[in-house]
Amino acid sequence: MSQTSEVTPAPTGLRRLGVLRTQNGSFDPQCLTPLVRLLEPRALVRSHVVHWHARAVGVRKTAWLLEGEGEEGWMIKEISCKRRCCNIPTALENCDSLIQKFPNLLLDETLAFPHSCVELQTPSGEHTNDLLISRRCPGVQLCRFFSDLDLRLVENQEHLERVAAKVGELLADFHARYSDPLTGEATYHTDFHPSNVLYEPQSDTLTFIDLDGMGSSGISDDVEKFERLLWTFSAERYASAFRLKYMALAKPLAKPQRSSTKSTAASSEDLYPPTATVVTRRLPRGESFKCLSSLAIPSSSGFNPRGNLVTLAWLISPSEKMTEPRVRTAKKKAWMLYQNGQKECWYLQQVASNVDASLLEKRCRAFVRIFPHVLADECLAFPHSMIPLQMGSKNCGHLLVANGPCNTTLEQYFLECQDNRDKVLEELLPRVGEKLAKTLDKYRSNELIQLKPSGVLYDAQREIITFADFAWGDEGSDGMNVLDRLCDSLKSFADDRHLQKLRMGFARVQRSRQRGAFQKACFGNRSPPHSDSEGSSSSSSDEETSGLCRTM
């Protein structure tokens, strides 16, 4: 038989094994036969009878060890199928996202990461909860192993110190292997304590469990929390052994957090050596532009904000401003994410993978450094964050995130107008041109190439005009200047006659600025002499205005 090599597709999430109906929609440890049939159908047709039983673990009574004589068994955990908040994923959704982001997660023998799930329903068919299924790992919880040791014996003291150091080594490896391949940000366990570490004394192996809350956007104190609890359970000696081993092996991801544990056995230089590295990414002081955690997207459909709505809301609004997020398409590769019933929006602009992200980030940081007030200016929806898009372990582009005071584009406002659409454009577009000229003049700098906006947001009630969707002067647009690029983006609903109004408004401000600069150069702070001819010269004809626009 000839062997052919096949490429195994990357998993897209947990395996859905089926539905289990119970009396109240919760797991019943006394009724295991239907569950075992879903987990492994062959387990019930073996030649010998296996008596299965579920042993509860943990204080919350939501996790069990499903065991059978001579069988490996499973670890199961009951979770809610409903979100605690609209923009916070469920544990099941979080596990699906992590598997897409780290395809080798299920193959890691040091982790008991869930591989399957079973849907729990009431007899009427209502979906109430889910069961996460993980492999059964050998060993006992580390806190129980601590309590069983007689630390009056020297050999037990040395044994416990070796185990504590080994936990630090494994945690450093965990943070390094599951750091974001695009941003370098560590992915934390978020609930790392001795009860979630299993230890098998005979084989001297450790396994991390309870990983459904794993993620870089949660609590980032894995080291500090474990050290504090280890110091409480045993002694300072073993807590120091854990931290010192971790700090010796941790990769340069972030600056280490100071421990709240009071130490006498080791100095601060020992616990926090100058070469020690960090676990969280921090921005240089004085900068506001941020690079957020990467967003895993499926390889089949590509990026779709509607399919990642909850995760996006959590990434860009961790303060839970968006509890009911909505998304609206602004233009091709640009969307507006907003809270239902509010005017404010987050403008998402997708950047292709062939664009140098480091250069883009550098330019945004530099612009914010020169003009710190730009992020609070209602006239510009300037990017304040960047989200790397990740397909498997490869970079497939970025999202620029900006804040805007309104969630309606100029085109959408025009299409929603029922009457007098022609009059609306004739009155509105000159104001857009004037606002564009004033805004660009406000942010003119010799250190940077001029920005080129191609999107316009508009709030009719407050009469706010905001520019979005930026490109830099040397990027794309086939050499178009600022005005041409904006006009080109408005051609879908405005004809040349209307766009000429926009150009006239832009040129009017430009001409006024140039005349003001000329007067200041000639007369200083004194007012220039008035003449009867000034009025006629100041009101230029349309032909002169058009000529000025064409020469820009």
Structure, described:
The protein is of the alpha+beta class and 552 residues long. The protein folds into four domains: 15-135; 140-271, Transferase(Phosphotransferase) domain 1 (Transferase(Phosphotransferase), domain 1, Orthogonal Bundle); 290-404, no CATH class; 410-528 and 539-550. Helices cover 33% and strands 20% of the residues. The chain contains 15 helices and 18 strands. Strands 10, 11, 12, 13, 14, 15 and 16 form a seven-stranded mixed beta sheet that branches. Helix 4 runs parallel beside helix 6.
Task: State the CATH architecture of the largest domain.
Answer: Orthogonal Bundle
Helix percent band? 25-40%
| The level-1 CATH class of the largest domain | Mainly Alpha
Give the averaged pLDDT, no decimals. Answer: 78
What does the main sheet amount to?
Answer: 7 strands, mixed
**What's the number of extended β-strand segments?**
18
- Low-confidence regions: 1-7, 253-287, 525-552
The CATH topology of the largest domain? Transferase(Phosphotransferase), domain 1
Number of helices: 15
Shape: elongated
| Beta strand % | 15-25%
Q: What structural class do you assign from the helix and strand content?
A: alpha+beta
Taken together, the total number of domains comes to 4
Distance between the termini: 72 Å
